[in-house]
Structures are given as C-alpha cells and as structure tokens.
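Morning!

This is the sequence you dropped in the shared folder:
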Amino acid sequence: MKQALIVLAVFIFGVAPLGYCDTQLTLDGNNKVVSLDTGNFQVNVSPPWHKGAYYYTNPDPVGPYGVHVAGKYAYVAADAEHSLTILDISDPENPVLVGEITDAVNLKGAGSVQVAGDYAYVAAYTADALTVVDVSDPHDPQYAGTLTASSVRLLDNPSCVFVSGQHAYVASTGDNAVEIIDISDPTDPSHSGAI
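The structure's back. Tokens below.
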C-alpha cells in the first residue's frame, strides 16, 4: 500500500515523471488508480488508504506502456506488441480481456492513449503517428484513421497525447514540439497547428 501512495503522490505533486507522459497514471471519478509496471498493471478501485490492489498479469498486453480508464474499461497501449488492449475492470479482482487490435504499421510503438467518446487516440512512437481506434464495441476495436509525420506535421516520436474537445494535443519528442490535431472527424484527423 505504501508503494501505491508513493505513486499517487508522484502523480499529484509531479515529483517525478512516469515514463514519457503523465497519463501513464490515470484517475477517474471513482478513485480508480492505474499504474504501469513491467509486464503488468495495477488497478486500485478503492481510496488509497484501503487495502485493495489487484494485478492483471495475463500475457496480453505485451509491453504495456500507457493506460486510460473510462467507465468499466481500461485501455492499454502496448509498445512491444503494437496494440491497444481493452480490459473490463468492473470486477477489479478479475479483470477480463475483452478486445484487442494489433497493427504493426499504425500502432507501432503504441505508448500513450486517451479515450474520448467512441474513440481511442494512440500516440504511436515508432510509427510517428497519432492513430485513432473506434472502440464503440470494446469487444471488436477497429482502426479508424491515422495522421503521420511530415514536413508540416510535427509527429516525430510522439510520446504523449491529450484530447480536449475537437482537438488532440500530441507531444513529439523527436520534433521537440506539440502537434495540434483536429479530430472533429476521427476517421480523418488533420493538422491544425504546432508549437
């Protein structure tokens, strides 16, 4: 439990980075805490002072790197497997794999993930892309669209994604930039600007 409190303190007070992106640890309105470790991740659906840490250590996903909890699902981006895995965490003692999409081109190096509505937005580090996955049916996630790096679009080694409204904000370590992407049509994400 002490370890979970330390991880929570790191996230809240910004004491140390968690991988490339602060979304590596996600809290939702029900006090769900998700943190990553090599080969597994922890889901704590209780306040931090309660004894309740559960681990999912099934072989899938391989190389989990980013996670986002929305409702009863945990969406896990796995860089080693180039995948997005969806777990039903409604029973935290028995998380269940419900769906997965693997794409060695568009999800290559999947690292950070944000879910908004029916779509998951994945920063694919090695693919130099923001890839959109339709997760309206968590049992059958489908590729929806991708925006890749170019001379105008600054997506070289995207490491973190954050979605707000009709835009995705992607931190690209290779370009030392933030790419702003219009996602009003998730099947056709487009360049809005960059900083």
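Headline: The radius of gyration is 16 Å.

More detail when I'm at my desk.
O.
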